[in-house]
From TrEMBL:
CDD domains: Ere-like. InterPro entries: Emycin_Estase, Hydrolase/PRTase-associated, UCP036794_erythomycin. SUPFAM superfamilies: EreA/ChaN-like. The keyword Amino-acid biosynthesis does not apply. One of its GO terms (biological process) is response to antibiotic. Keywords: Methyltransferase, Transferase. The keyword Ribosomal protein does not apply. One of its GO terms (molecular function) is methyltransferase activity. It comes from Salegentibacter salinarum. This is Protein-L-isoaspartate O-methyltransferase.
Length: 416
């Protein structure tokens, strides 16, 4: 698998599906981003997909959405927009690979009617403070009465803003901001249709309010140091996705970019034994099988952009060769080339990938010297509908690290 034409079997597998989930085995690999972009371009051009939803914060990703749709005051160039991504890990979205894809999306949208323009939205729950500021500032101009509710919610959360970690936000407090944010969400939902002074203003206000409501649940779960916060986060992402589908037309189709741990069905991993659910599982449970295609990604070796600890400076790290008997090791050993594997094509293939195998998952924090802890036991043919193995991969290119002078984002769609 070397170029876009090699994706034909995957496009055939996708068929008329409405939900295509594209994973990644790390948050810092160049080829995961560029291959997902190539798949997304073909889905938009050939199958009429409507928007892209990603594992990113709503306020920041909405800035990309505004820019690619040429909304008023959306910024001069994509680099300036992406440099506003201030939450660690900034490299996840403020990188040259996203800049290249956003430029393509803007060109695609340029002469389209408003309802035909491709959107780009964030699904995550982390942006509590940014969402608060956004909704208060907006409502003060458009809906002063509801703005007072937003201020009440903001005042409720304000004592916790200086806390130094998510887990500590509610751990020492007897307060509960639930009533304030639920009332705010109710009011915004009822009035969203009247917020028409800017494109998608109602949607933006409602989903900022939804972030506030679910962030309250998420941070309180974090304070309990249990696993509930994972489920709150993934359920929030699906709730946001469902709202976005309702916002678009009845035949809307969505491309979702998230880590494999979110898009690969949790029931085919050890996550299920811990009571964890994820986006892939929830979408499969909510929709018919033919409407959904889950695509996982992996690689055998290379390099990655990550941090040594949470909040640490990003750095390019060597990715160790995959451990013995992992999925990645087996695929490399059989033939050290890129591969596209489509499950359900024959029983022999399904059987070969139905046993539980170790499958690598690298997060934003990575320690190459602790390689054996980076694997999730998985039944691959149940976890995904297709899997893309890229044998050797390279680190992505953050915007604040200059690429070689002769390169621009458009010049490296498949690797450097």
């Amino acid at each position: 698998m070397e170029n876009s034409a090699d994706l034909d079997p995957l496009l055939e597998k996708i068929g008329d599906a409405k939900y295509v989930l594209l994973g990644e085995a790390s948050h810092g690999t160049h080829e995961y981003y560029t291959w997902r972009a190539q798949i997304s371009k073909r889905l938009i051009n050939e199958k009429g997909f409507s928007f892209i939803a990603v594992e990113g914060d709503w306020p920041d990703c909405y800035k990309i959405n505004k820019w690619i749709k040429s909304y008023k005051n959306s910024g001069e160039n994509i680099q300036d927009v992406l440099k506003e991504f201030n939450r660690w890990p900034t490299w996840m979205w403020a990188n040259w690979e996203i800049a290249a894809f956003a430029n393509w999306l803007k060109d695609f949208n340029l002469n389209k009617k408003q309802e035909e323009k491709i959107g780009f939205y964030g699904l995550d729950v982390y942006s509590l403070w940014e969402s608060m500021d956004s909704i208060v500032n907006y409502l003060q101009k458009e809906d002063p009465a509801t703005a007072e509710l937003a201020k009440d919610a903001l005042n409720c959360f304000e004592p916790f803003k200086a806390k130094d970690s998510y887990a500590s936000i509610f751990s020492t407090s007897k307060g509960d901001c639930k009533n304030e944010v639920v009332q705010l969400l109710k009011e915004v939902r009822e009035k969203a249709h009247s917020y028409d002074s800017a494109e998608e203003a109602g949607l933006n206000a409602e989903l900022n309010a939804l972030v506030m409501a679910n962030a309250e649940k998420y941070y309180k779960a974090m304070a309990g140091f249990g696993d509930d916060s994972w489920n709150v986060r993934d359920r929030h992402m699906v709730e946001t996705l469902n709202r976005l589908m309702a916002h678009h037309h009845e035949e809307a189709k969505v491309i979702i970019w998230e880590h494999n741990t979110h898009i690969g069905d949790a029931r085919a991993t050890d996550m299920a034994a811990s009571g964890l659910v994820n986006v892939g599982q929830l979408i499969r449970e909510q929709h018919s099988k033919e409407d959904i295609v889950l695509v996982g990604f992996g690689s055998y070796s290379g390099s990655v952009m990550a941090g040594r600890n949470w909040g640490a400076p990003m750095q390019k790290m060597k990715v160790s060769e995959a451990i013995q008997d992992s999925v990645e090791h087996r695929l490399h050993k059989s033939d050290p080339e890129n591969k596209l594997i489509i499950f359900d094509e024959n029983q022999e293939l399904n059987d070969a990938f139905s046993e539980k195998m170790k499958h690598r998952a690298i997060g934003v924090v990575y320690h190459p010297d602790r390689e054996r802890g980076n694997y999730v036991p998985s039944r691959m043919s149940e976890r995904y509908d297709a899997f893309i193995h890229l044998d050797k991969t390279t680190a992505l290119h953050p915007l604040n690290l200059q690429p070689k002078t002769e390169l621009t984002p458009e010049t490296y769609p498949f690797g450097i």
